[in-house]
From TrEMBL:
The name this protein goes by in its record: DUF1963 domain-containing protein
Pfam families attached to this UniProt entry: DUF1963
Domain of life: Bacteria
InterPro entries, per the entry: DUF1963, YwqG-like_sf
Amino acid sequence: MQFDDPGSLFDVCTQRLGERAGRQFAALARRGFRLIRAPERAQATGQCRLGGPALLEPETLWPEQNGVPLSLHAVLDTDALATWLGNELPVRPGLLNFFYLDPDLPYEEYRKLDLSESGVCRVIPADPAQAVMVTAPQPARSYAVMPVHAAEVTMLPDCWDVEDDDVEFDRGQHWGAASLILSEMGDLDGNTAGSHCAFGWPDTSYTLKVSSRDSDGAAVHLLQLAEDTELGWGWGDAGTLYFTIPAKAFAAGDFSKVVGQVLCC
């Protein structure tokens, strides 16, 4: 669920869930962005874009998995996003390059790879003052560049990313916190699983969690990429690609711990 106005988010939560549970649910809100195609390059948010060449520091190697190069899908300019994210961006990594292994390219090397391996996705930071454009090596796919505007929103978690301890609920009436959110907030779920988003909370539209939890809390959602016929990518039937990182690794700026996950019908 996404809100342009954080105040309206709080009001809706308390009106729908009651004062106590509403406050608890509203406290889970995170700041994020809808990534919208910028009609003109000047309307893009910093250097944020989908597709195009990577923006890497000199001498940075293009990421591979078992000798097969990954494809560049997006670049986020965290300097341009920092003002809205505030404390939710504990480090300023500059540019973040998002790579993923294209599963459908007709090469024998690709068919031999296991898409469940951690190396099929990579996020590589770069100093914008040093970064240079690097074109994808063959046989990785090179997508057309699409500058994007990052529209500021405040996001509530999908019901499947809410734990039973997050909000109080009547255990005689609901089987879990997800049941409460579904019954009281479900009609407000805009279902952004078909759109591109950054930070905030992911939207799965399926009964699966994206933001796993550990002792440091829920994983940080970095990027959500939907099927895009204009760019020419997709991941199965109505598939969406998610990049998340453990909260502790994010705070330390360790993007080697990023996890890529595809969910589809």
